[in-house]
Amino acid sequence: MDILLIAGLWLDASAWDDVVTALEELDHRPVALTLPGQGDGAVSATLDDQVAAVLAAVDAAPGKPMVVGHSAACTLAWLAADARPERIAKVALIGGFPSADGQPYADFFETKDGVMPFPGWGPFEGPDSVDLDAEARSRIASAAIPVPEGVAKGTVRLEDERRFDVPMLLVCPEFTAAQARGWIDAGDVPEVARTRQVDFVDIDSGHWPMTTRPVELARLLAAAATDV
């Protein structure tokens, strides 16, 4: 199966390199996406531009792909399911949940000169970064690509309720599946609560398992792609 990989904020397609290798060894066809404004130098990119790039990859897949979103890009994966519910076999969300209609995409940190730079490790101390050593932290921070303001502050627009028919896998890294179920039951993630088929899987990592647990993550994604 084609597996489309969408990295979260400040990351480009290279964040998935080790996962791509492992997925290929498991006989899948991974495609790591370079998003407008996150790897192609387009500082003026918007959320609509990123959605269009994801949809182009969905449309180019020979069959129904599984779309994988990491962190904030969980919302991008879900926007693809909203726009192409009949073309997507499954969405897999790693370390995040899709925003609801009308919410900002990722307006989490201060923007400067039209971009949202990586804020340093302070906001991510604790479970998010517990498994990152100094070398990994330095590598991620030095490669971080400032996110265009038009992406971070873009408004999420969801229109087709057939998205709730697309099966969903929640990969739970810095939080557990039990915690995720609690947030869903409490009404904190309404898009997931309305999805008809949601599976959960834990992975013993921080927020960036593609860096610290790439082979294990690939095996989880491969299993999810096979079980469609």
Automatic annotation (TrEMBL):
Q: Name one GO molecular function term.
A: catalytic activity
Q: Which domain of life is it from?
A: Bacteria
Query: SUPFAM superfamilies, alphabetically?
Result: alpha/beta-Hydrolases
> Gene3D superfamilies in the record, alphabetically?
alpha/beta hydrolase
The AB hydrolase-1 domain extends over: 3-219
Q: What is this protein called?
A: Esterase
Q: State the species of origin.
A: Streptomyces fructofermentans
The beginning of the lineage is: Bacteria, Bacillati, Actinomycetota, Actinomycetes, Kitasatosporales
